[in-house]
Write a structure and sequence with these properties.
Blueprint (H helix, E strand, L loop, with lengths): L2 H39 L4 H24 L6 H28 L6 H25 L2
Length: 136
Amino acid sequence: MTASGEAAGGRRGLVDQLVRFVAVGLLGAVVDLSVYSLALHLDVETTLARALSFVAGTTTAYVLNRRWAFQVEGSAKRATGFAILYGTTFFVILGVNALALAALPDSSWRVTLAWAISQGFGTAVNFVMLRLVVFR
């Protein structure tokens, strides 16, 4: 195969992987937002609700990303890398969520929009780190 053919295959592989990652991310986000909404409905404090929802969505995403999006076998090293990455992301999304809640005007969509902003930021960071470090 030529260098340009390898580059095209590499791009196609990256695009396929990104599409699978987005599909998994959407499902993880549905789990995350569902748990967040349920916890808030049950009068759980906002930061704790966000923490619980993150754990639920992250667990879903890890299993599906490992098996389908990145198609790698599980290992203690990968699980540790994943835990470190998502542990870091956990605090980042809590901070982004808190900043968004403080910055957004009061409205019926304020809490959901803050969740979406923190989720989007965390998702972008996670794709890059999962691809370059955890599932390479």
